[in-house]
Amino acid sequence: QYSTTGCSLTLHHTEKPKHEAVCEYRPYSCPCPGTSCDWEGSLEAVMSHLMHAHKSITTLQGEDIIFLATDINLPGAVDWVMMQSCFSHHFMLVLKKQEKCEGHQQFFATVLLIGTRKQAENFQYRLELHGNCHRLTWEASPWSIHDGVSEAIRNSNCLVFDTATAHLFADNGNLGINVTISMC
Description:
With about 180 residues, the protein is an alpha+beta fold. The chain has one domain (about 55-184): Sandwich (Apoptosis, Tumor Necrosis Factor Receptor Associated Protein 2, Chain A). It has helices at about 15-20, 45-55, 115-120, 150-155, 165-170, and strands at about 30, 40, 60, 65-70, 80-85, 90-100, 105-115, 125-130, 135-140, 145, 160, 175-184. The chain is globular. InterPro entries: 7-in-absentia-prot_TRAF-dom, SINA-like_animal, TRAF-like, Znf_SIAH.
């Protein structure tokens, strides 16, 4: 199905649906969480789409930045999104607050590469929360935007913390997460 966009595999019809679900050449969906955006397009068009359709997303340059999530006490499910640009790539930083069990909210923080799974293997990210005599650190490889935030959460391959931990590191309801991207 994706031969026109670069896939050169020829598969038996029984193997085709499984491959098409994960094919690197399938269209990319809008990676912006918390929106009902149904945009699809090529990998090369993702950043242009984000800059034009989601203008509220801030982009910071550099390998080390601070991702500031404001008003973490807002009720209900909330997503904070920011872009980080370094090593000639763009990374989407996401902090997601959602209710996991009745009345129990959790925060999920992860990094997605605006790129393929293969490209994502070339990078590592570190998320750090700093507080008064406390430090919480998570290190992992970024996910490709083909996989998305929900896949990172489903696999518990992200920084996960509860509301009490968020308040331990927050300053006046704002949570600063140090984000460092490095090449492997």
